[in-house]
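Morning. Coffee machine broken again, so started the prediction first thing and wrote up yesterday's gels while waiting. Chain of 199 residues, entered below exactly as on the submission form.
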Amino acid sequence: MAIQHAVLALLARGPSYGYELKSAFEAAVGPQWGPLNIGHLYQILDRLSRDELVVAERQPQPVKPDRVVYEITPAGRAELDRWLAEPSPRSGGFRDDFFLKVTAAARSGAEATVRTVLGNQRGHLMRELRNLDGLRRRTDDPLVRLLLSAATRHVEADLAFVDDAEAALLADGGALLATLAADRTGTAADAAGEARAAG
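Came back before lunch.
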């Protein structure tokens, strides 16, 4: 789980407490990731404590409630090193909501439906690219710029898929759509199974 390991990486720099870790995480990854839910963070810290990857120490404060400070253990450092040394597989395989929409639209046989699905997605992705470009221009942090660049490349790849789908499904004047609509045996589940078998 990426956030669990990101928390270990933050603790590898020194002991810290919940809200400090939340701020450090958000500053490290920038606005593209979005805010880290503090309740979720405490669940992660509890799990890391149970797994003996961090230790927690309660520190009294004069006015506020006690603060719980977390520190990475040797086992936590070993787990962080293991995670950093492994490649990151694509999460979720090739399951994708948009692909299922394209499949449903194509099997309907309706060219207008396919054009609507592809056009709406293209518009959404173009807005996302503009937003990412604005975020990249406003940050001075080179790591955040790198994350935004990665996000931009993902969006560009999604746009290329929209172009591929348009070329494959709409280039022949509707003949392929008619064939797909008539073929009741093929399903999105079959296509997903074939993609998993090929991967």
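The longest strand covers residues 54-59. Going to sketch it on the whiteboard this afternoon.
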